[in-house]
Amino acid sequence: MFEHNAAVEAAIESELRLLDPTVRRSADLVAALLHPGFHEFGASGRIWDRASTVASLAAGMEDGGRITTSRMKGVQLAPDLVHLTFDTDNNGRRAHRSSLWRLSGNEWLLYFHQGTPYDPAEDDVSVEEA
Questions:
Q1: Is 74:82 a contact under the CB 8 Å cutoff?
Q2: How many helices (H) and strands (E) does the chain have?
Q3: Using CA atoms, how far apart are residues 102 and 111, in angstroms rounded to an integer?
């Protein structure tokens, strides 16, 4: 069941901030959004930790293009945990994405992320809202 509550909205706001090219180029701004235990299974197949993610983004290892999102939905799994799912398009590279955001103090921080590449022509999965 997808929800629209304060926790989900805060996680969505933080996720969108993290996708902003200006934020992505700033090690400090990216680090402020990542939980100390952050890890990711990237769409590239690479496994990332917090330090490698911050360093990679700050070094401009991406092409820096605007990332567009679609079908973003969220559910609060626990008082301190939100799960988001969405799709991204980064200059034609598309991925299904899943993020876990944890409340740490008063901040929602990205704890886990996974991206899986997909071809929209072959994407026949229908996600229904509960």
A1: yes
A2: 4, 6
A3: 6
N-terminal to C-terminal alpha carbon distance within the chain: 5
pLDDT, tens only, 70-111:
999 999 999 999 999 999 998 888 999 999 999 999 999 999
E strands, the chain, are 34-41, 47-49, 68-78, 81-90, 93-104, 107-117
Helix, strand, coil share of the chain (percent; to 5): 25, 40, 30
Asked if residue 130 has pLDDT above 50, the reply is no
* Complete domains list, the chain, with CATH: 6-122 (3.10.450.50)
Cβ–Cβ under 8 Å, residues 14 and 33: yes
